[in-house]
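Task: fold both queries, return tokens.
Query 1:
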Amino acid sequence: MGRRRGVLQQPGAVHRCLLGSGSATASATSSCHSVLLKFKEFIRNFEKEKNVFPHRESLVDNPKFLVVNLEDLLSFYSDLPSLLRSSPSDYLPLVKHSCKY
């Protein structure tokens, strides 16, 4: 698993979502990529207080575990919590993947 020349080398849901499968449309792939980028931005840039980045710091301390308050996510990107609630099996792999980079 990793990146090589900008191409995601990972099997499974994230790979199918981002690169498309036989049934994925270009707009669905684009949407998946957009959601992945939003999750990455949230994890890296959400500030609880000035210069306090709880999710980024949490992943530095323990890269295998992250607790996210949905209210924090809602305040950063209002559409992401509803996506997680409506289709967790589609979006949780994107959250997991966004924590790796």
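Query 1 returned. Query 2:
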Amino acid sequence: MADKSDLRYQAGQAAGHAQVKKDEMMNRASEACQQGKEEAGGLMQQTGEQVKQMAQGAADAVKNAVGMDGSTTTSTTRTTTTKP
């Protein structure tokens, strides 16, 4: 009879150890997942800032090309007509 209870005790211990190991692995996986999310979020924010800067640069280039860059230089054209 002692053999059966000893086996049950050992089986219970093994099940308890397995549960603890499973919990540890789940915690590690959860932490790794959280870290991955944080790193991805930072990367997305950095990429968004780069895209914003590129768009601003493109807008400034277009404004410069069409003379809407806000500079204070003005040019005047004078047309004169002469009669023969």
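Both queries returned. Flag for query 2: The chain has a mean pLDDT of 84.
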